[in-house]
Amino acid sequence: MSLSIGIVGLPNVGKSTLFNALTKAQNAQAANYPFCTIEPNKAAVAVPDERVLALSAKVSPKKTIFAGVDFIDIAGLVRGASKGEGLGNQFLANIRECAVIAHVVRAFEDDNIAHVDGGVNPSRDVDAVETELLLADMQSVEKRLERLRKTAKGVKDAKTATDHAESLLGWLDGGKPAASFILPDNELFLNCWREMGLLTAKPVIYCANVDEASLPDGNAHSAALEQIAARSKAGFTLVCAKLEEELQGLPEDEQRELLASYGIEKSGLSRVIRAGYDTLGLCSYFTAGPDEVRAWTIRRGWKAPQAAGVIHTDFERGFIRAEVISYADYMSHANEAACRAAGALRTEGKDYVVQDGDVMRFLFNV
Fold first, then answer.
1. Is 0.85 surpassed by the pTM of this model?
2. 330 Cβ partners below 8 Å, 6+ apart?
3. What is the pLDDT of residues 284-304, one digit of tens each?
4. Which of 272, 210, 205 is nearest to 232 (CA)?
């Protein structure tokens, strides 16, 4: 599985600059005026993980493969986007399949950079964007309701599903996000729910885009945004798009020095991805051998057969057992044979809950 993050926000808050920096793609035009991103930008990036590098240095495989994250950046949203104002609403469909929404909010003052609403105000800006997401969801539900009503007389559970959809529409119309709607036990409605990919049902990470001086402790604007995140039980992280852009192209040692000069250890990329992992309850396990060292993304709490299934469905279907070495044990012994001799290699069955950092080999038969 791969983590997918859709980036939203008002125009001119640093979305495209951040996207450029996070992906190193530099293919999302960044400029000091609204609507400079007129096509959705997509890029896949590797999940920074020092454990992968350490395993690779130890094993010397032919290939080293990190876990991946897909970032999708769309044009800035403005008030009235759901009614055709601006350009951002045209691209909302591109983030309906994303697992998480990263909402970039401006949290810095700069008279040289125009603000679409005249000044920095995180609470107002969040409300503007989330209102448009809510209105876009209402449109999706209304369209689905039209279809359900046409089939209500001839399809099993369609009348009940229609009633549930009408309740959902009323819920959204009351200004409440889909995430807080209690899902009923109705298969047809649940299928509709999954197909609609409602934006306000997705977990959110609020990204406060601050200036360099506000790293690492933030400022009054970012503090206000952090309170919003806490009230909605959403993720939160500080980023400095300008600094992230400066980091690109520098050798790793110089990147570390630059980050340290601002009192931080991790780049914005690392913090955003970590927030995504934490928000969705994800973790990584590893496979390591002479051909390949690779990180695999799974949900916390998954058992060994489910984890095996992300490699290939046959691994899950024909699962027999797993050989497991913790990352710490793997790195503290000379090699896998030494781990086995020391009893650090364990054989686990189908009920084993995979832990973050496990180094695994699966045995299966189909």
1. yes
2. 55, 58, 288, 336, 339, 344, 359
3. 999 999 999 999 999 999 999
4. 205
